[in-house]
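[agent] plan:
  1. take the single chain provided in the ticket
  2. run structure prediction with default settings
  3. attach structure tokens to the ticket
  4. add a short note for the reviewer (M.T.)
[agent] executing step 1
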Amino acid sequence: MKLYYWSPFVSNVATEKAVINSIKSVMKFSKKKLNPYLLDIIGEWDLSKKKIINENIEILNLLNFKLFKFLPKYGFFKSRFSYIIIFFSSIYKLHRILKKDKPDYLIIHLMTFIPLFLLFFFNYKTKFILRISGYPKLSNLRSLFWKIVGKKIFLVTTPTKLTLELLKDSKIFDSSKIKYLPDPILDIREMREKKLADDILDQRFLNKKFIISIGRLTYQKNFDFMIKAFKQILEDYPKLNLLILGEGEERNKLEKLIKKLNLENKIFLVGYKPNIYKYLKKSEGFVLTSHWEDPGFVLIEAGFSNKIVLSSDCPNGPRELLNNNVNGFLYKKDSLVDFIERFKEIQNSNIELIFKKKLSFKKKIREFTLFNHYKILSSIILNNEN
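[agent] step 2 finished; step 3 output follows
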């Protein structure tokens, strides 16, 4: 069976890793029963070219011209402009490849409106699997579009069980079509190699005590809340520092906020780091302040790195993963008071309690290994074939 993966993007997103790892899991465990191919739409996968070559992933290029490097990457209106360009550049090419190659499945992760637009107007032998990547915003327009085209969608997969229930309650899709499929976040071999790699921690932080937060510098990640909260944290823990790893359109805004609060020597925007594990290893703990996550890749990576986690009680990943504070600490989203209380609770907790939470979290995140992803993906496909 041929599986084509569709996931065009214009900036670094966690879904990029999920797609590559999903393909790796199929190649590794299916014994060639399932043959995955990665569709490169605008040259976006050149960013991961070395990894793709090393893993022997087969790429199908839709366009000869690499548009990716010319498209604007950040900002709401700029990214929408890029989406429009990608739509008109790729839609006919995708239609032709579906008609010609007739893959058994098309798994669509990002910019799903392009293949779904085609599915609305045409009939294909290919079965479409809509992958919900991240927490879905069920606007009226999206809900209506999904409901109309949903009758022709083969399956819908969700990254968390809470999102599965959300979609079932919305009644947009036939509930029998919605399946839970955890992201393949944990490639144990690769993560161990990264932990042992020679990547050097930034010399500025070698002798500093710090907590860490990781993610794109966007509204979703809510780093301005983190910065304001850390200002108060310093009143009780003056030796502590905050490192934020990631890049994005809000960098200038966050830099101005840090300067306004006179925290230039306490909060550091470190930028994007391909290997986060040296930073996680030396940190005192991991903090996530997002408005939403589903499931929250860095949350799982922090748990794998044996770090205690403090997260906002946002939908849907953290709520599910941390299981009502069993696997870490949750605070009420956007509540400065609750954030400070939970932070102090961590500092005052005994070693046994912290160890118990870390261990419980590690057991939970086993769901997000490559093997478990493949096992569930293959069962979903094969069971629906019979």
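[agent] step 4 note for reviewer: The longest strand covers residues 35-40.
[agent] ticket updated
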